[in-house]
Amino acid sequence: MARSGNLAAELAAGETLDSDNETAADEQYPMSTRRVYEPRSTSAPTAREIIAASATPSGGVAIPHRHETSQEKPLLSDRHMGASDEVRENMPAKKSDEISDMSFTAMDHQGPLNSKPPRRQRPTVTLLFAVFTATLGTWFATGYYNVALNVPQEFVVRWIRQVECQRHYADGRGNYTESYNESEAVIYTAVYNYTDGYRIWCARPTGEPNFKLNTIWAVISSMARAGILLCCFSCPYLIKRFGLKGSIYLSSATFLLGTVLSALVSLVAAYELLIIGRLLCGIAEGLTCVAAVIYISEITPVNLRGAFGTTPMIMMVIGSLTANTLGLPMMFGNAAAWPTLLALQSIPVVITCICLPFCADSPRAVLQSREKCGTGMLVRARKALVWFRRTDDVDDELDVIVSEQAAKAKGATAKQVSLLGILKDPYLRSIFWLCGVPMFAKQFSGYVCIQYYSTSIFKGVGLSQLHSSYATLGMWLTFLCFSLISMGLVDRLGRRAMLLTSYTGMITGMSLFTVFLIVSGPYEVAWAKYGCAASIYLFMASYSTGSSSVPWYLPTELYPQEARTAAVTWMNLFSASFGMISALAFPMVVIWLKEYTFLVFVTAIATSAVFVAWKLPETKGRTFEAIQLVLQSRFKRTGHS
Question: Sign of torsion, CA 6 7 10 13?
């Protein structure tokens, strides 16, 4: 135990392992856990030195110097050795099982273990432009098309009935007529000489169960999730093959094709095109949700990573709010214009395709191809960093990134981890549950059901069609407001605190909704419908403060770089599969449990909250390497690595 404590102190102080201690180090920290996270040697060249060495006399690379040329200080090695010695002298030895509880004051805000705390940075115009561009055609478009059919759902269902009726009766087997009642927002059809087999398609709706119609609508609603599942397994290959920006381009083309097919459904009278179109949009969502999240996490400074990590979800909420606003009956949410509502989702995708070429690549992604393309990629990475930060003073941050690449090159492998590799490696598998449980809580919290069926839920508690549309619009406004509030709190309170706060409010909201639902049903209390609406608002406000966004960027913080793509892909797979199960099972569970259905979601949230409070470490203000040391120490203690 003493040896373990000494190793912990040496690692925290930024010391490298001596050759005499290699055997003991291998026993305490196997290569599977420490191969990527070793601090760089004091003799390793800095980013400036590598760039200077690669410059040619005829076309050298001009690097602005912040130090005197007579005695230039290395960016990551010599200048911090004194600080490391001081930390080591004043740091008492601790047992290995106490490592994960240390304050880590020497590394809470550092890059590599032997570097000084990075300068706190503010958002720049170019950084905001890049984040906005990367999320507009991806997360905004995703939020838009996910709820575009929510408000005009009744019109779409009536149109599907009309299509089926025309297919069976328009060929001379019956006389088909149609009338439209604008005030009730219902299409009625009258058919003569029909049989009982066609009554459910062509007669005026009577509330008689229509299994085929329900199945068609369930398939349309869940097809986007199926598309995400199909794309998940190819995401790592596509991102490796085309890069982050190239993957966004590829998904944009797929999304545009799906949008065109969805918008043409009324012209060709085929709801099958709507199914195929939403499947293609889901495939595009599966790729963009991974690529955009990784891109944002890699271009954002450490002190802004939490705030910008909420941006994708905020853009998704704005997209949902936009779709609900445009889907009101007086705009595009009517029988004649709902296909136009679907066509409008192509606009943000086109804007992203136009603006993305003006955004720089991720410096970390550029440096991944350095060994294959030469040191010129280091120059390119520095130019990208200068573009994002709007200053030439980026050498500290660049050297932090270079040290991560050097640590990977010095380790056993710099190869990207596969999807199965996440599960095979004990250390990565331990982190897998830290990311998977919050995603489970996110999708089984009841949010997916509210997202797809909010208008129907509000109608079910006693609100009219128009008031239900307004209530849905107000719900997304609440979501947006609290998402913006959480954007400023996540880097102050921390990820773990935001999740636990979110879970507490969600449990309260769902529990109150169940109570008001019971009161409004058997007891027929008139005001209970407003209590139900207020409870849904409380739930959405709480959901937006943490559970909506934190699970998406947890894998980008907890996993090392070579495993991030696979980790985010797994979380995307979890999100799609859990969401599809929740959306498909909800109508059947309602029949069985009725007013008590939402208690299932309360149980799922409470179970996840206990796990997060017990296991999830705080990552606020820590760089990737400091987080890796915390996780390595914690899982060494519990025997998971």
Answer: negative
Instruction: Tell me the C-alpha distance between 552 and 438, whole Å.
Output: 9
Q: Do residues 452 and 529 both lie within one domain? A: yes
**Alpha-carbon gap, residue 208 to 226, rounded angstroms:** 29
Contact 332, 156 (CB under 8 A): no
The pLDDT assigned to 44 comes to 52
Same-domain pairing of 371 and 495 = no
Question: Number of helices (H) and strands (E), helices first, in the chain?
Answer: 31, 2
Residue 231 near residue 291, CB atoms below 8 Å: no
What are the CA-CA distances from residue 391 to residues 322, 387, 395 (Å)? 36, 8, 10
Tell me the Ramachandran region of residue 314: left when phi exceeds 0, alpha when psi lies from -120 to 50, beta otherwise: alpha
pLDDT of residue 419: 82
- For residue 639, being part of any structural domain is answered with no
Rounded distance between C-alpha atoms, residue 264 and residue 44, angstroms: 60
Beta bridge partners of 322: none
269 and 242 share one domain = yes
Q: How many domains, in total, are found in the chain?
A: 4
Span 315-341, pLDDT tens digits = 988 999 999 899 888 899 888 899 999
Whether the CB-CB separation of 548 and 483 falls below 8 Å is answered with yes
Query: Half-sphere exposure of residue 560, counting CA atoms within 13 Å on the CB side?
Result: 32
pLDDT at 441: 93
Classify 76 as helix, strand or coil: coil
Residue 640 resides in a domain: no
* Burial readout 404-417 (b: 16 or more C-beta within 10 A, e: otherwise): bbbbbeebeebebb
Element (DSSP H or E) covering residue 187: strand 186-192
Give the DSSP letter of residue 192.
E
Number of Cα atoms under 13 Å in the Cβ half of residue 377: 17
* Closest by Cα among 372, 588, 621 to 495: 621
In terms of pTM, does the model score above 0.70? no
The pLDDT score that the predictor gives to residue 190 is: 37
Q: Is residue 403 part of a domain?
A: yes
Convert the pLDDT of each residue in 492-542 to its tens digit. 888 899 999 999 999 999 999 999 988 876 667 778 888 999 999 999 999
Alpha-carbon torsion angle 543, 546, 548, 552, nearest 10: -160
Indicate if 472 and 609 belong to the same structural domain.
yes
Residues 144 and 288: beta-carbon distance below 8 Å: no
Question: Bridge partners of 189?
Answer: 178
Residue 632 domain-assigned (yes or no):
no
| Per-residue confidence (pLDDT) for residue 410, from 0 to 100 | 58
> Domain span at residue 94?
2-101
- Same domain membership, residue 173 and residue 42: no
Query: Which residues in the chain show pLDDT less than 50?
Result: 1-43, 56-117, 171-194, 412-413, 637-641
